[in-house]
Design a protein that fits this description.
Helix content of chain A: over 70%
Low-confidence stretches of chain A: none
Order of helices and strands of chain A: HHHHEEHHHHHHHHHH
CATH architecture of chain A: Orthogonal Bundle
Strand order of the largest sheet of chain A: 1-2
CATH topology of chain A: Farnesyl Diphosphate Synthase
Largest interface: A-B, 52 and 52 residues
Strand content of chain A: under 5%
CATH superfamily of chain A: Farnesyl Diphosphate Synthase
Number of strands of chain A: 2
Number of helices of chain A: 14
Oligomer: homodimer
Structural class of chain A: mainly alpha
Mean pLDDT of chain A: 92
Distance between the termini of chain A: 29 Å
Radius of gyration of chain A: 18 Å
């Protein structure tokens, strides 16, 4: 059966959107803190990371429900990272997905705590998953914390802060992005491979796919910052340029960045070919990055 | 064999102080971020939470090494909470344990990331523990995240923020403290009981002990804010009073707070009597709270 990507993405986004509030509502959390956590968690993200996890399970013929708690935790971590990233001491952003950022609505102190709360709740949700064994949950938490923590995303954010004052080489830019955004794109594919018990070679091909996908995703973001419309992106266009940020576009030109995007998408898809799995959806997700408008 | 508490505390503090840097040094973390994380993690804390975990394992006759990763993770979470608590948007403190606070040394952005990094690394350290089964690790992570997260410590910090503008009743103050500081005092005893496979009744007595200990600990802190010396505390004395904070002393008077402290210590110790375990050290820890000077 071929499932069209568009239908699949809508269906899975609706699923995770329906499930996420349950984790917040089940817990006795002070009202304002809960509102602040929910505001960012339910702010209309595309849920691309959960969808990657579900599509990997689909490729392995594993029940997607087995990935639900992990997907929920991952999305909480993604949300927390955006809240803290937007803080005055960090990127100092007022808008996110067309809405005021968390600290603009709830104040800085509650925004810091909402981020801390989402990060911590993420691990609670994975650890209390009833469908996975303790062994699998421990391995997932080990990888998720590694991907999100000081060796991964948090480390990448620090490198990004430090890079603001310098011109980077393309290699250094890629290494910052591998940490800052790449690890959290790789993780859902890794987790799916783990939960779906992929063979060793399949695991290697799937994670290689995810690594190229992560870079393609970031290059696409840089391109959209130049070519996208504010209405579609929900944020100021061209801000990377005015902030003199190191981006693929500033280092490679727009045309060069497009070629690099296309190259990573091709390589990602090539890796899927060797898995012998039902990777149609994963291929379509990679191809979708070539043409997305937000 | 009776081990004196003083020797035991020194020995265990030295052990955890020796082990903690290894987790940081083993990981490829950007230099400034690692320094910032290490600055607060190694700032000379008393390690009371790890010591509680080891003493609980000692009571159960379990090898204390089995608690080492959990103790390390717990101390990382305690450190992260202090970094974020001291931020300008939160308590805006310049001094902690007699030294400039993290954001004063490394800047606000890196301090936020160092806190995020320690919180995330904590779960990685527990999840990759080689001495515990996946099942036990998952249960420990479930409890640790629950104790530290929006239902526990982070929720308590939010309640504390909101309480700044109001006069609290003693019951409300206790409920804020149970979350904000109590849950992370209870956790090491809970984790020890879990790792040491305490029987159901033992588990209940040990955690009841820990709940009273947590309240005694907070009452003691409030008393020290009035009676302690700045040199011993490493922070400004009387700051609760000048900040019009709700404390046990402001609600109960100094004498009333001392009586309440003594009552909780007595009740904590009484619970230990019913466990049938070697609880000498745990008793001494409770008694120590009556007389500590910092």
């Amino acid at each position: 059966m071929t499932v069209s990507l568009d239908t699949y993405m809508k269906e899975k986004k609706a699923w995770i959107d329906r499930v996420l509030p349950r984790y917040l509502n089940a817990a006795p959390i002070p009202e304002k803190l809960k509102s602040s956590m929910s505001y960012s968690l339910m702010a209309g993200g595309k849920r691309i990371r959960p969808i990657l996890l579900f599509a990997t399970l689909h490729a392995l013929g594993t029940d997607e429900e087995k990935g639900l708690c992990t997907a929920a935790g991952l999305e909480m971590i993604h949300s927390y990272s955006l809240i803290h990233d937007d803080l005055p001491a960090m990127d100092d952003d007022d808008l996110r997905r067309g809405k005021p950022t968390n600290h603009k609505v709830f104040g800085e102190a509650t925004a810091i705590l909402a981020g801390d709360g989402l990060l911590t709740l993420a691990f609670q949700v994975v650890a209390s998953d009833r469908l996975l064994s303790g062994e699998v949950k421990s391995r997932i938490i080990e990888r998720l914390s590694n991907a999100a923590g000081p060796e991964g995303m948090v480390g990448g954010q620090q490198e990004d802060l430090e890079a603001e004052e310098q011109a980077l080489t393309i290699d250094k830019l890629m290494s910052v992005h591998r940490r800052k955004t790449g690890r959290l794109i790789r993780f859902p594919v890794e987790a799916g491979a783990l939960i779906g018990e992929a063979a060793r070679e399949q695991y290697q091909c799937l994670t290689a796919y995810a690594d190229h996908l992560g870079l393609a995703f970031q290059i696409g973001d840089d391109i959209l910052d130049i070519t996208g419309s504010e209405a579609e992106l929900g944020k100021t266009v061209g801000s990377d340029l005015t902030n003199h940020k190191n981006t693929y576009v500033s280092l490679l030109t727009l045309d060069g960045a497009r070629k690099e995007l296309s190259r990573h998408v091709d390589r990602a898809i090539a890796y899927l070919g060797s898995t012998g799995l039902k990777t149609g959806l994963l291929e379509e997700i990679a191809a979708y990055l070539l043409h997305r408008t937000h």
